[in-house]
Each structure stands twice: as C-alpha cells, then as structure tokens.
Amino acid sequence: MILNNAQAEAVYAAMCALNNVNGCVTAEFPVEGVQVVEFDDGSIAVKRDQRIVVEAYENQSDFAAAYGLDHGGADLASELARPLTQPPCPTGASPNSLARRAAE
Prior knowledge:
The protein has one domain. The chain is α+β, with helices and mostly antiparallel strands. Helix 1 runs parallel beside helix 3 (about 75-80). The longest helix is centred in the first third of the chain and has 15 residues, at about 5-20. It has four helices and four strands. The chain has a four-stranded antiparallel sheet with strand order 1-2-3-4.
C-alpha cells in the first residue's frame, strides 16, 4: 500500500464528505510524490509521480477495504459525510442565542 493509515483515512473521509455535494477527490502528498484521484465514474487511482498508477480501485468501498478503513476510518468519514445544515455552536450556545447576541 502506498498511503499510510493517516493519509488513507483523510482521503477516504474527504471522499465521503464530498459525496454530499457530488464532488470528487484529488489529493496530493508532495513529499512522497503520491497523488490520489477519484474519477467521475467512481474509480480511484493512486499514482506515483503523478503518472504511474500503482493502485486502482473500482469504487470508494474497494479503496476503504484495501486500506482497512471499513471500521477504522468509518467514524471520521461518517461524521464528515453528514449533511451540513449549519455550523456547530460553541459549547452552551444555541443558534437562537447566537443570533440574539449578533443583533445586539
């Protein structure tokens, strides 16, 4: 495997989050000379030096399984993949209390 665990988790979480807005991931790790590209058809390529495909996956599930992220990265991925309805509030604050403070 080309990516380390932290890199694979970050890429997978980004993929899951971008699913909500019909986006695709292109991630670069310049120190290692590695690029991860998710194509419109859902396939994923892990490239070295931006041109040599060293890993290929048919979909996000295959990528996650190959990197053992079915459980390890699932919590972060599902948290990032949930639809964003509004930004999180600071502890003890509600959207209404923040709006009142902003209006003052």
